[in-house]
C-alpha cells in the first residue's frame, strides 16, 4: 500500500500471531480458511497465521482529521506448503485521498 504516517499520534497498529498446528482453531482462523477455500477452490488448513491491523491510519503526511483515516488488515497465512495474503478493509473502504499522493501512476484495485 502507501505510507501511513503515525507521527502525530493518530492511529494504532496491532498484530496477533496464531499457531494452529495440533490445536483448536479460533473462529478467526476458520474464517480465513473458509475464504481461501471459497476463492481459491482448494482445500486449506492453516498451521500459522499473522494478522496485522492498522486502525485509523492517516495517510502520509500525517493529518489529525480522523475522517481521512483508514482501518485495514493484512492476514498472512500458510499451511507449510502454500502461503496466502488477504487484505481486508473496513466497511466504507479506504478513505485516503489518492489524488494527494506524490506518485501519479497509482494502480487501485485487483491485479
TrEMBL record:
Oxidoreductase keyword on record: no
GO BP annotation list: cell-matrix adhesion
Q: Which organism is it from?
A: Casuarius casuarius (Southern cassowary)
Q: Which GO terms describe its molecular function?
A: ErbB-2 class receptor binding
Q: Where is the NIDO domain?
A: 1-111
Name recorded for this polypeptide: MUC4 protein
Which keywords appear in this protein's UniProt record, sorted alphabetically? Disulfide bond
A Pfam family matched in the record: NIDO
